[in-house]
Every structure is written in structure tokens, then in C-alpha cells.
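Sequence in, structure out. Go.
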Amino acid sequence: MFQFPLEEPVIIFAIAMVIFFLSPIIMNKLRIPGIIGPILAGVIVGPNGLNLLARDQTIVLLGTVGLLFIIFIAGLELDIDGFKKYRNRSIIFGLLSFNIPLILGTVVSLLLGYNLMASILIGSIVGSHTLLAYPIASRLGVAKKKAVTTAVGGTLLTDTLALLILAVITGAAEGQLSFAFWSEMVVSLTIFVFIVLWGTPIISKWYFRNSLNEGIANFTFVMVILFTAACIAVVINMQPIIGAFLAGLALNRYVLDHGTLMNRIRFIGNALFIPFFLLSVGMLMDLKVLFTNPKAWIVTLAILFAVFIGKWLASLITSKVYGYSSNEKNVIFGLTIPQAAATLASTLVGFEVGLLDQSTVNAVIIMILITCFMGPYLVEKYSREIALKEETKAPDQNRVPERILIPLSNPETAEALMDLSFLIKQPNTDDQPLYPLKVVLKDMKSVEAEVANAEKMLSHSLEHAASAEVPVRLVTKVDNNVSDGIIRAIAEERINTVVIGWNAERTSNKLFGSVLDRLIDQTGQTVLVTKLGHPLNTTNRIVLIIPFGADHKPGFYEALGRIKMLTSKLNASLFVYVIKGSVDIYERHMKEVKPNPPTEVEHVSGWSDLREEYQNELKDDDLVIILSARKGTVAWHPQLEELPKQLSAVKPESFIIYYPREEMEVDIRGSRGLDVPKEILRKKDYDYS
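Output:
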């Protein structure tokens, strides 16, 4: 059982789990990027180290799956809208960032005696890069800078070119480089790309619109797409990582970055398969070669030269062309020197087909270790300098922590309301939980039983939020009626945003019904009255209707920012109808508020024109948002009370009636400093405890 290398599967897996658990802790103590840990562990426990574990079929299988996960997640996380917006800059930088290191890497490899195919492969290896340090730029608040967006967009091009060269070189290594090979590759690759990028979105849209939103089924569906695309790539003599990358691009807009499904994909990949891939790469390294073969050191220095000089020249030229500062140039350089995903993939494939020898593998792994040190260090240092040089703004004294209340009554719509709340939650408020609420009526015969049922229903929302790693605080209220229970929860929990569902049925002449109407009339907080008829991740376009004078409301810019953030997270476009307002003014408003998804603003002369000319242009997968107003306030119009009824009878299955916050009247003595509307403070039976 304990003969080395170990062959007992349970013991092998146990050792791997111990490595995956301890290595991040040790790396963190040493202030080294966690990706280095499993690689170093593979060097130590692998066949060229202590020989505890062999790089057998099990390790290779799990490592291959990990490699596909790395490339797949890279495709899912690419900011396609950002790439489209700055595509010229990204294309120029991507070509420079790939071709300069490619040329340098090819030349130095030829000088070291490698053949042409191996030299080009080494050049493509150093031409790609991994955005290992991007989370640092995001954390320091510079992720939206044009320089960072340029670097991120260029990644799409560098990785794609690296993978295409890998496919050609491996085909040539196997003696297939002929006219028939080129014809077959071009035709098969064209058909393959068309099937994946055109067919997958159609299948995915149909599936998500008709699925029961079950977590396991959704994850399994995504895995089917991933491995089917990888399998087809193998069938047409391409590398499976090309299929994985295309699958990620095809599913990019359907797997929301802050959703439960993306969290499951990241969790499974980062916790299990990707560490196995890093472990398997470390097992390839043979330290003895460094001491017995001087060529290994020469190759290492040559590859490092090609990476550092090539990436530095690319960032320098791009910065000069587009006027980026010295700090921004250094951030671009830091973002693009780390080598991990595509580099490891190409190196592994090149070694397996016999193009790269052991000394080259060692050199590449050492290059990965050094660049993964340098990249995060440079991004941390110069991003901080950029952030410190920005003009500081005085803190908003009226700004309170974002707290979102989600009153729930129908179990079938609970998850959709939770998903919407995940998307509108500000990214810098991770410490603030969501507040799912269930109100139980006092006059019910079995209040205790109903409270128990309410807690059971809320527990499902807790599970759903936990899968997205979003904190929640469950709230149950017993009150005379539902609206009073919601209003009391708003005051007691200091809520500033309410996301509530509507079934689009009106049982009286009221706008929505007694509960929602009282809630809107008696509160000044932001309220989103929602009817979600299709999954949010299948939304192609958000249609925003802005009434005349809406930009004079106190919560206008906050609402606009939240709607644009929702659009960006859904990878959708924003189409704005401005009722009687100036297009120029609202276009200026749009530019003032971040983020900036693809946006189009159109003037509408009146409500009748909106109903007669534009309402029929709405599509099934549109999400319509009406920036409404409370009766008697600026921007209110009688048509705002008719529009929800009209929308519920036409094509769009999903719409939101968005009531921005109003100015609040606060009685410090009566409410302990909470933002409580005066209508609530007048209630005699209100309990402030």
C-alpha cells in the first residue's frame, strides 16, 4: 500500500486535498500568489522530487479537466462590451502584446538551436498572458480606467492567437501541414466556430427560458456545453482548450458574473480541478536538469528576456499612442506579464507532442513563477499611485449602507426576485446582507403555524443566496396587514431599497392593489415593483422609459446608475425612451453615470406616441423599466398609472416599475435617528423596539 509512488486512489486523493488546503495558507504567509502553491507542491511530491505521487492517468485526467476550466472561465469572464467599446485600442495593443514577444521568443529560440516549429511555439507561449493581477486593479478602483480596459480587451486577442498557433504547430509536428491540412482546418474551424458561437446561444436561451431554474440541472447543462465543444475540437484535430474557450464566449451573457451558476462554476473549478492541473504541471519539472544541463539556465533567461522586453515594449508603444501616463503604462505591463493559463496549456501540449524538451518545460515553469511574482507587485504598486492621485471627494453624509428588502409571498417567484437583488446590489457593499421578508397576518387562527411556514419559505431563499455567496438576514413580521408589516420592517431594519413582485393583476381601481399602493404612498425609499416573466440571463435589451422631469428627482442619478449597472451585469444593451425631454441632456446624464453599457437614447413626443408607435417594437426578451414617480411629485403623470396595465397586456414578459427614493422627513427623537417617513411616525401603534 505504501510503495512509492503511491497507487491507492484514496491515499492519492487525500494527499492532494492536504496540498490544496495547506498551499494557499503557506503562500499567503509568504505573500506569494496562491497559484504558485500547487505548482511547487507538484515539484516536491512528483516523480522528479520525493516521488510520492506519479503523474498517472488519474492526475492527467483531472489536470486536463482543470485546464479546460481555466480556459472556459476566461471566456465567461471576458468583458465583451468593454472590448467592443475600446476595440481599436484593444486590437492594437493585443497585436503588439502578442507579436513583439512572439518575434523575440522565436528569434532567441532559433539562436538556441530549436527548430522552426518549436521556436514559433515558444514565441506564442510568451506572447500570451493571464490576467492574474486583475482583481488587484479592481480592488483598488482602477478597473474602469481606459488603460486597464485596453489591457483586458487585448487578452481576448492574445489568447486566441496563441491557441490558433498552437493548433497549427501541433498539426505540423504530426506531419499534417499540407494544403489538405490547411483546407480542412479552415473549413472545419469555421464550421466549428459557427456552431458553437451561433448554436450555443440559441440552445442556451431556449433551455434557460424553459428550465425550472434548478441549480444542479443548470450546472450540468453548462458542463455539457463545455465538454461537448471540447470534444468536437478533438474530433476535428484541434486542441480541446479551443472548444472550451469558445464555449465560454458563447455562454458569456447567459452565465451572470454575480449569479449562483457562475459561483458554482468558479467554486468547482478553483476548489478541485484547477489545483489538480497546477499540481500536474509542477510534476513535469525536473530540478536535476537545472544542475546537470547548463542549457536550462540559458533557455530560462532567454524566455524571461522575451517576456519582459516584449510586454514592456507593447505597453510603452500603446501608452505613447493613446496618451496614457507612466503609472498607467506600468499597470498595463504588470497586467500582461503574468503567464499561467494559456502558457501552461501550450507548454503541456508542446511537451506531449515532442516539440519541447524537459529543459524548456523547466524554463517555462520558472518563468511562470517569476512573472506571477512581478505582475501582482507592479499592479499593486502603480494602481495604488493612480488611485491616490485621483481627486478625492468629500464623503456623502447622507449616504447610508445599502440594505435591500425582498418581501416574499409566492415561492415560485422568490428566486427571481433574489436574483434581481443580487444584480442591483452595489459591488462595494458585500458586508451588507439582503433582507428576505415574510409577513404573517395577526388575525389568522394559527399564527404560530404560519410563522413556521414563513420561516420554511425563507429558508429556501437563504439556500439560494448562499449558493451565490451573498449574505442574507431572514425577517419575519406579524402584523395587521401585509403593507404595515413591510413598512415596519423598512423602519426597523433601516431599509433603503425594496424589491417586490407583482402578478400584473388589478383587483380594484388602484394602480397595483392595496398592498403595493400603500407601500409606495407611505414610504420614500427606492421601490422596484417587478414582474419577471423570463429568466434575467436571457435578457438582450433593457428598455428604459423616462418621463418628463425625472432628472429633477432626488434619486434620479442613483436610479440611473443602478439601471446601467444591471444592464452591464446582464451583458445587455440599454435603449432609452425620453418622454418630451431633450435627447442631448439625457445623453449627457448617461455619460456622467458609470458604467457605460451600449446605450441609445430616443426622443418621444408624448405618452400617446409611446403607446401607439413604440410599444409594438418591444420584444419578448426585453426587460422594460419605467422610471416612475409617486403621485404629486415631480415627473408624475397620470399615464404612469396606466402604463403597467398596458405593459402586462403586450409582448414583454418582464418589466420593472422603478420608484426612485424621495427626500425623507426624520424625527430623531421618535425614530432613534432612523430614516422613517412621517406617515409611519404618526402611527399610534408603532413599536420602535
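Check: Residues 391-398, 665-689 have pLDDT under 50 and may be disordered. Residues 148 and 332 are 6 Å apart (CA to CA).
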